[in-house]
Amino acid sequence: MIALLMDSLKGLLQERLADVRLPAVNQTVRAAPVVYLGCLPPPSLDAGPAAEAYPFVLLRWSAGQDEEGASLETVRIEVGVYGANAQAGQDVQEVQAYVLNLLARVRLVLRETRRIDGWELTLPMDSLLDEEAACPFGRASIVTTWRTPAPEQPQEEDFYGQDYGQDQQEQG
Asked: What is the CATH number for 132?
């Protein structure tokens, strides 16, 4: 069931972020963030560590917990942006503005939707800035928890009825 949640989240974010335009590495036009499941694509030899993936939204399952009557899954949503001007040392604040705007947009989409394929987003959501990301790249993440009711145990069916075999005992 977690795979269904992850696929549905990917589709939702692709649809709702399609109009967002951010700088992309080695491109003169802005692009919508690409939504990935699990990991970023491998880097090419000339561009460095997955630079072509920017801007992106990355969905990663990070933990699960079953409790009486429900299952909880933690999904980490990472966003990554690129600031073309920051690369030239002109505007480092540009990167932070892009990352915060994309982060805010993803959080808004999640709060507006709240329910996806039987899963419900539980609040609060935690947001964290990745301070290790080096300019011209910026990264941040949102830690979300999703809850779904536990599947009900099937009831044993009495195919023959409770009186089955009683007539045989009476004849004997």
From this structure: 3.30.2000.30
